[in-house]
Design goal:
The complex is a heterodimer of chains A (105) and B (394). Chain A is α+β, with helices and mostly antiparallel strands. Helix content of chain A is 22%, strand content 15%. In chain A, strand 2 and strand 3 (76-78) form a beta hairpin. The longest helix of chain A is centred in the first third of the chain and has 13 residues, at 7-19. Chain A is elongated, with a radius of gyration of 16 Å. Helices cover 41% and strands 18% of the residues of chain B. In chain B, the strands form three sheets. In chain B, strands 3-2-4-5-7-6-12 form a seven-stranded mixed beta sheet, sandwiched between helices. A six-stranded mixed beta sheet of chain B has the order 9-11-10-13-14-15, sandwiched between helices. Chains A and B meet through loops of A and helix 8 of B. Bound molecules: iron/sulfur cluster (2 copies). One iron/sulfur cluster is lined by residues 53-59, 76, 92-93, 95, 97-98 of chain A. The site of one iron/sulfur cluster has 13 residues of chain A, from helix 2.
Amino acid sequence: MAESPFKADIERVQKEYSEKMTPGAIVYLPGSSVVNKTGSWRVFMPEFNRDKCVRCYLCYTYCPEPAIYLDEENYPVFDYDYCKGCGVCANECPTKAIVMVRETK
Amino acid sequence: MPIKKVMKANEAAAWAAKLAKPKVIAAFPITPSTLVPEKISEFVADGELDAEFIKVESEHSAISACVGASAAGVRTFTATASQGLALMHEILFIAAGMRLPIVIAIGNRALSAPINIWNDWQDTISERDTGWLQFYAENNQEALDLILIAFKVAEDERVLLPAMVGFDAFILTHTVEPVEIPDQELVDEFLGEYVPKHAYLDPAKPITQGALGFPAHYMEARYGVWEANEAAKKVIDEAFAEFEKKFGRKYQKIEEYRTEDADIIFVTMGSLAGTLKEYVDHLREKGLKVGAAKVTVYRPFPVEEVRELAKKAKVLALLEKNVTFSVGGALFQDFSRALINESEKPKIVDFILGLGGRDVTFKDLDEALAIAQKALNGEKVEEVNWIGLRKEIL
Ligand code: SF4
Ligand code: SF4
C-alpha cells in the first residue's frame, strides 16, 4: 500500500497537538483526518478474490472513504486502516470478487 | 449625542444588535422574543444594518447557522427564549467548545409542561453548564448595554466564548421604558471591528474546525472552556469599567443596594432586582437593616464577589425564579459552593418564587422576610421555601 503523502505533515501536527492545544480544538492542517484510523470501527471487512476481478473499478469509484487503492497491475487493494466496512464495494462489484466477512481478531 | 427612545426590551436588544453591526443574524420567532429578529429584519431591509438575515425553520437551525457564520469569521447574533433555547441545547455546547463568540438575546421564559410563555429563568439556568457566559438585565437599558458588553467580552482574545443576555419575558420584553441609544461612533470605538482571532475561513490558510477530539484531547478542550470562563472574570470587569467611562452607566458582576450595616441581604437577578430595591427602601423606612444585591453576571459565577457580599450580612436570602430538584434554586447551589469553606459565613435561605410569570409582590417578599428574620434570630427554618405557592389546590 502506498504511504500517505501527508506523512510528514501528519507527524508534525501529531507532535504539535501532544504539546499544545489550540482554542476551539482547531486543526491547522488540511487532510489531517488521515491520522484518524477509522478502520477500527469496522465489524465486517471486504474480502477480495483477485481471480474474479475484471478491473472495472466500480469498487474503487464507489468506496465512500476512499479506502481502495490500485496496485502496480491496477488491481484494487483495500486499506483496512480506513475501510469502515460499509459493504458498498461488495454490493457494487459485478463479478462478486468482493464479499463481506465478519471480522475476527 | 445619544438619543432616548421609549421602547421594549426586545427592541432594545435589536438596537444593541444594530449598534454592534453583526454580519449574520439567524433567528426563528418565538414568544416572547419574536420582536427581536422582527426588528432586526426591518433594520436589514431598510438598509440600516448591513448584514445577512437568515430565516431558518427552527432554533436548532438558527444557532447552527450562527455557528457556521461565526466559524467563517464574522460577528454573529441571534435571539430566542425557553423551548427555543432548549432546542438549541446541543449546538450551544458546540459553540462554546469551538470557542465562537456568538451573542444571544434571551427573553427569559418558563419551560413546558404545562405550556407557559411567561417569565422565569429556567431556560437560561438550564444552559448554565454549556460554557456560555450569562448576563441578566434588570431593565430595558441594561438589556441594550449588556448585549454590547457581551460582544466585547465574548470576542476578547483571552475569552473567546459565546454569551447570552437574559431579560425577563413580558416584564421587560413587552414593557416600554425610556432607553438611551448610545452614539454609533462610541459603540464602534468600544467594540472595534470584529477581527476573528482563531476561527475564520481563509482559502490560503485552510483549517479544520469542529474536528473529532479523541480522549487524548477532549479533556483539554473542556478545560480550555473552563479556563476561558475564569479569564472572563477580569475581562468583564475591564469591559464594565470601559463601558462606564464611555457611556456613563456602571455595571458590576454583583450590584449591591443599601447593603451597608445590613443584617439580611436579599439576592436576586433580572427585573426582580428592581422590585427588590423598592422593597428594601420600604423596609429601611421602617428601620429594618435590610439590603439587596443583584447578580448581573451569572456565568462565570462571581465567587469572589459572593464571598465579599457574604461578609456584610448575617442572612443571605436568595430569591430565585428557577428550580434545581432536591437542591432548591441554582443560585443556592452556587452561593453554597462559594461559601462552603469560608470560616465565617452567613446563613443562606433559599426562596423559589414567581415561576411561570406569577407576580412577585411586596406581600410575597414579606413572607420571605418573615422566614429570613426567623433565621436571623437563630430559629430553625427550611432551607428551601416556595413563596406564593397555592397549597390549597394541591
Ligand atoms: S467496505 Fe466500504 S469502506 Fe471498505 S473498502 Fe468497501 S466500500 Fe470502502
Ligand atoms: S468492482 Fe469487483 S471487478 Fe470491479 S474492480 Fe472492484 S473488485 Fe474488481
